[in-house]
């Protein structure tokens, strides 16, 4: 049975919420696969060596990493985990339906832009809203967010166009109902001297197994092809591809400094922004929130969600390249892991934001991933975790590193109290 986007999102967050409960109340079986929450049952593992090339050459400096080792690892991630994505479409164009309106009592300029991916403007387009601080008279840096909701649902601004979202029945409907994810205070970014933009991820590709029938991936299928090849893009790559199309627009807007664009997303969208930042080096900073399995967390740690859980065909295999599922029962032979994704961002700033009780997403696995990737950041002389001792919740000692880590007290969410810390990080590196 088709399970549309809104249902799957709520299911995923509900499962994460269950995983935050006391051990006796957490799910012990998901998709017929046992779930472990005990550190003494994680098992032993050895991570792929970041600093040894496929030919055995040791990586001793940033030049060798950039020219040789990084391309090797990037190809593995692309072929195995997320899948190949196409380049910028030739027919793409932008239409500013709101080229610039003063909002928030004159504090900001709002722009609403439709990005058309194909020559047919009826489908395959995404709605982008941008807020820029009015007080700044030169091109500004900007945080680009990818959201589970249409932008009119998460921002208090009566001038916003009402978008569409995917309904429980798998149909596009007006986004005129409240969202379970709450409102976002956009003015906090403007007060920090930066812009803010957001897009609804369902505009790019729906978030359910049959979504390829409606999303951008459909337009790239070859004749008689019903789905992507085993090494071609899943939904996460499609969302990342859409973020690169937003960057294409930013490069045309003289009020935006396209060399200072940060990305932020949470949960599966934390995976998407991490992959977008890795694949498209035009993005300067990435904030990957609660990205978990398939994101920054170590897959070899048998804790919480595993490759088997996330790539089960009844669950989220459509989000990845089909090749990823072949490692669901042989994770120790996987030539990559979460620390590879983290290292591939080097030397650009990356902040991993997690939650102390988000056991399903394994915040410790994300911390250990950062520890394992730290030597790559140090090749570039950048700051990264110097300790193997995981900091407690609300500890900010690792927050401001180039490779930063911060864990709030709480679960699978980006809390209102997280944003001032994220903004401090962005102000430092943008």
From TrEMBL:
Domain 4-O-methyl-glucuronoyl methylesterase-like span(s) in chain numbering: 231-381
InterPro entries reported for this sequence: AB_hydrolase_fold (IPR029058), GCE-like_dom (IPR054579)
Signal peptide span: 1-19
GO molecular function term, any single one: carboxylic ester hydrolase activity
Pfam family membership, one: GCE_fung
Keyword line: Hydrolase, Serine esterase, Signal
Highest taxon above the source species: Bacteria
Keyword Secreted: no
Keyword Hydrolase recorded: yes
Protein name: Acetylxylan esterase
Species whose genome carries this gene: Larkinella punicea
